[in-house]
Design brief:
Two copies of one chain form a homodimer. Chain A has 275 residues and is α/β, with parallel strands linked by helices. Chain A contains six helices and 15 strands. The longest helix of chain A has 19 residues. The two termini of chain A are 22 Å apart. Chains A and B meet through helix 1, helix 6 and strand 9 of A and helix 1, helix 6 and strand 9 of B.
């Protein structure tokens, strides 16, 4: 039974769409009949400074170790506070944006029936929605790991540190639609199998002595969710030399996301599956 | 006589196009016959941290006071070092990028004949080039203020913290063209009068208690250098209410530049003139 919902925005302080939506909802909460909603501006310090994070990526700060130890990292302490606040939360909707052309992506970070049904129902109700599954990363656990059910919205392309009205209202529309389906308990439909993209590998930029030595190829820029085939150009170095994809066909996502340069991720590779 | 040239990139550490061009040219300098070129990564600490600046905007740190006083601001100290390095510089080419749709803008920040001729010759040689003049701001002097002649390139739209191959090579092409005209002393042509856009006013976002309460209107996004007329929608608030332009016709530039949110600039207004 889904009763207590939380919506988080500004987990990354320079992703303004989610942060300003939270501020709007805090002033004017969405009216519901059956569910409670807690609106959380997740990283207020990073939001104030318009940075992704102060000391450590908050969305990698929910691992058991980070939640256990006293820390000089602002985000590790903030993660403990958020975990306490979400202790009765049944479902979390976490709002993000990306410089990649990810359109409206519903990200699942674990495989549970309720989250899957909600993701599928969003895709059923709205056009141009993609379901992406990202089950693990090596840096630390996502905020989603501390609640039983959750989805993340990743909308793009949008630069860090700016608002875009079209993207703001498009995200708000999806949020309201999720709240409505939870409030009416109307998401448990028998839906046909839906395509999902599972992140299975990560590709870094070519580097020399640790420094980036090539850029995303112009023909790959903006082509998130397109199929990469052997021989497709993926990078071009600073002298114009092209570098080609050499592996099995895969779908590329998070192409040229600004925040992933430091994570050594030029793009991610996905397999398409059906759930 | 233009003999000593400097090219600066990464004055803002998260504008990667200029920074990586400088790194490329430092490894493989452009061949010249008659001029010397000094390639300077202007804010290496901000570049390393992928931020616009550490303590203060370096491109507002060249006022007499900032250059005179000992300071705990990294950028004020860096400005003194750069001023010393540029003491024999005749012409500075400063490379920037912007999240606004400024295409290839040649920015003049003072009115001198040589800089004007170079700007006009760039516009003469290349398509889709705009000349923008920005003679003063209240925050502190630009790097251009410490050299006799200079132009700034502002290329966009591109997010902070990313490379875009098309924008990289387009900027490189203009840089090489400027170097060639300086090396061959071929810029002193009699050219027809050219249109330039003079920044004459700045428009902030609507705010409530200091916080942004509206976004750039979707019909204005990306419309840099277009004419704003009375009654045109310029903002939309978070509830969808439109806000309209009420003044004399002017041209809008730097629309929705990420770095200008904190400077209280939603866009700048220009008059079109001919030089």
């Amino acid at each position: 039974m889904i009763k207590n919902i939380a919506i988080t925005g500004g987990v990354h302080g320079n992703e303004l769409t989610g942060a300003y939506l939270i501020k709007k909802f805090q002033k004017r909460p969405i009216k519901t009949k059956n569910i409670n909603i807690d609106y959380i501006l997740a990283n207020p310090k990073a939001f104030k400074e318009c940075k992704r994070y102060i000391d450590y990526d908050l969305n990698r700060s929910f691992s058991i170790n980070a939640l256990k130890e006293d820390s000089h990292f602002y985000e590790f302490e903030r993660a403990k506070v958020i975990k306490e606040r979400l202790k009765n939360c049944d479902f979390l909707l976490d709002l993000h944006s990306t410089t990649s052309n990810m359109k409206m992506s519903v990200v699942l970070s674990k495989d549970d029936e309720i989250s899957n049904l909600i993701a599928k129902e969003i895709k059923n109700l709205h056009e141009d929605v993609y379901i992406l599954r990202w089950f693990s990363n090596s840096e630390g656990d996502f905020i989603n790991s501390i609640v039983p059910h959750s989805i993340t919205l990743e909308v793009g392309p949008i630069c860090q540190g700016v608002l875009d009205a079209d993207i703001f209202f498009k995200t708000e529309k999806i949020v309201k639609s999720v709240i409505e389906m939870l409030d009416n308990n109307s998401f448990k439909k028998e839906l046909n199998k839906t395509e999902v993209y599972d992140i299975v590998d990560i590709v870094d930029f070519p580097r020399e002595n640790g420094e980036i030595s090539a850029m995303i190829h112009p023909s790959l820029i903006g082509k998130d969710y397109s199929l990469l085939k052997k021989g497709d150009p993926i990078f071009v170095d600073f002298n114009g030399k092209e570098i080609f994809y050499e592996n099995e066909p895969m779908y590329a996502v998070f192409i040229n996301e600004a925040a992933y340069y430091e994570k050594k991720m030029a793009f991610c590779l996905c397999e398409k599956r059906y759930i």
